[in-house]
Structures are given as C-alpha cells and as structure tokens.
Design a protein that fits this description.
The chain has a single domain (6-231, 280-329), classed as Alpha-Beta Barrel (TIM Barrel), CATH 3.20.20.30. The chain has twelve helices and nine strands. The chain has helices spanning 21-38, 59-69, 87-100, 117-123, 133-144, 173-181, 196-206, 230-236, 238-249, 268-277, 286-297, 314-329, and strands spanning 6-11, 42-45, 74-81, 105-110, 165-169, 185-187, 218-226, 282-284, 304-308. The radius of gyration is 19 Å and the shape is globular. It is of the alpha/beta class. Strand 6, helix 7 (196-206) and strand 7 form a beta-alpha-beta unit. Strands 1-2-3-4-5-6-7-9 form an eight-stranded parallel barrel, surrounded by seven helices.
Length: 335
C-alpha cells in the first residue's frame, strides 16, 4: 500500500477587504508557523502582479521573510514567473536565500506572466516571453550549479548552491519539459483541473533520470475548504467563490467574508464557470475530505499534495490546517 503523499501549502497572501498588506503578511507568517507545527513539508508563495487583493508580487522577499520566521519547513516559489525576470537575478536572489536558510529553499518556475498583458510588458526584459522558457531554465540550472572553468557570468551568491528547481504548469508543456530535464513537476490543479491526469501521465511516461532525480517526483495542487462540518465548509467556501467571480469580472480580488447564499451574487453561467475553475476543490470535514482525496488519488500517482486554502478569518484558516493534517495522520493511503 503506497504511502500517503506529503502535504504542502501554496500561499497568495490574499488581502482581506479593509486589511493592510502588513496585517496580511503577519497572518501569512502565523499560517506558515501552524503548517510547520503540523508537519507540512513546504510553504510556497505565488508570484502575481497588478492584482488588488494579492500581495505576493515580491515573491523572493516574502520567501525570506517566511523562512526567517520558521525553523524547518521548506519555503519557496510556486512559482517565480521566469519570463518576467533575467535568470541571473533569480539565481542571485535564490542563491542568497539558500545561503541564509540552507537546505530549506525551493525554486518553482512557471512560464506564464502571472498578470495581465499590459503589466507583463512592463515587467518583461528585452521583449522576451514564454518562448524563451526552456533556455532560461537551462541558464538558471547552470548559474546555480558548480562554477565552470572560464565561466564569465556567475551568480554570486548562487553558484554551487544547487537550489532545487521545480517546473510548474497547467498544461502538458511543462510536464514534457520537466520529464525531459529530469526535474520535479507540479500541476496547478487549484485553478486548472481539466488536464491533471494527462499532465501527470505525460510526466511519468516520459521521465528521463538526471543528476537531480533518478525517479519522477510529482505534486498536485488542490483547492481545499476544510471545516468542522460539511455545512460550515459550504459556508466558508463562499469566500473563494466571490474572489474567483471577481477574477472573471475583472474586479479587485479582495478576500470577502463568507455569505449564507451566493444567490443574487452570480448568474447561472458565472456559477458554472466558478465551479469549473474549482473542479478539484476539497470541501468538508476531515472524513469527507479524506474520501474526496482517495477518489482523486485512485487513478494518479503523486508524491506530494499542495493545498490552497481560501478562508476569510485567519484563525479559522489556521484551524483548517489542523483538519487537513487529520486526514494525513489518519493514514489516507491508497488501498
């Protein structure tokens, strides 16, 4: 009977309507500390830009802040949107983080801009975009690897740190590239649920052993609303429904309090779109989520699960991690 996958968290540092960024980030620290106490393996932060309500744009800065406030949990990016950055700058930033917090830093890489087209153009250097992604990944690997004789461009710090690189994706492209390069792979099922089976299968079927990995290592990200009862979870989930609805409408993404009913807030088409976006959502008490997880894991193989938990009240959100941890501690392995 295979082991239950490790549990990890993805954080967007979502700002509650009316809260400051400072308060939001203090809540993120407390959230990471609870995760560490409960034995979660990783705490990753996502890069987004020009989005009111999301405060994780300076991703490497927040990684250092969270790592400095925790002791053992791995902290990293989920991910750095590589088309926005020169690889040398990312190598220097993550080489510095690895030097400060040895053995605890991950560098997850995505090829999307993580923002709208206008902002993407403001971020991007030299007009280069996603088409440069494979070369940029190779450049990063070289910059973070051992110094080579005659190497003219060096990441200082960064060279020789071998910060673990992950490829992140919501389609088959990064699954194929991760398999070809022998890198760990994470699929973004928390917002793109349709292709997760195919992407994970492509990754495993085409995996080539490398100096990084001898065997494939896959992660699936899932949205989750754990609560003490199914009824409470259904109530709490309306916070994420409102935020995704705002995303579709091009409105600010402030985190709003849960409501008793979404009737009148969305129409039938919007409801269907939000539910489709959250097609892999886990919702309920520990027993219910455990059954949902077993169903998802029944026809895929992953070494790790990464959860996004959009719950309005910070203490309720931290308590949700207790409930998630119960599902793993109960031995939810494939049978």
């Amino acid at each position: 009977m295979p082991d239950c996958p490790d549990y990890s968290l993805l954080e967007l540092a979502s700002v509650r309507e009316g809260d400051s960024v400072g308060t939001t980030l203090a809540n993120s620290v407390a959230y990471a500390q609870r995760a560490e106490k409960l034995g979660f393996k990783r705490f990753w932060l996502a890069e987004h830009h020009n989005m009111e309500g999301i405060s994780s744009s300076a991703t490497s800065v927040l990684i250092g802040h969270i790592a400095g406030k925790t002791k053992s949990i791995r902290v990293g990016s989920g991910g750095v949107m590589l088309p926005n950055h020169p690889p040398l700058v990312i190598a220097e930033q993550f080489g510095t983080l690895e030097s400060l917090y040895p053995g605890r830093i991950d560098l997850g890489l995505g090829r999307a801009p993580g923002t709208d087209p206008v902002t993407a153009r403001a971020l991007r250097r030299d007009g280069l975009g996603a088409e440069q992604f494979p070369e940029d990944v190779a450049r990063l690997q070289s910059l973070l690897g051992p110094l080579q004789p005659g190497q003219s461009v060096r990441a200082i710090p960064g060279a020789g740190t071998n910060v673990p690189l992950w490829l992140l994706g919501s389609s088959l492209y990064s699954a194929q590239l991760a398999a070809m390069r022998g890198l760990p792979y994470a699929f973004a099922g928390h917002f793109a649920p349709r292709l997760y089976r195919e992407a994970l299968r492509v990754y495993r079927d085409n995996f080539q052993p490398s100096e990084t990995l001898e065997q494939p290592y896959a992660m699936l990200a899932l949205p989750a609303v754990p609560a003490d009862s199914v009824q409470e979870a259904e109530f709490l989930a309306t916070t994420s429904y409102q935020r995704i609805l705002a995303l579709f409408r091009g409105q600010p993404l402030w985190m709003k309090p849960p409501v008793n009913s979404m009737d009148g807030l969305w129409n039938a088409g919007e409801k269907a779109s939000v539910k489709d976006f959250l097609g892999l959502q886990l919702l309920g008490d520990a027993e219910t989520i455990g059954r949902q997880l077993l169903h998802i894991l029944s026809d895929i193989e992953v070494e790790e699960l990464m959860f996004t938990v959009d719950i309005y009240d910070p203490e309720t959100r931290r308590h949700a991690l207790d409930i998630l941890a119960q599902t793993r501690n109960a031995g939810l392995a494939l049978s």
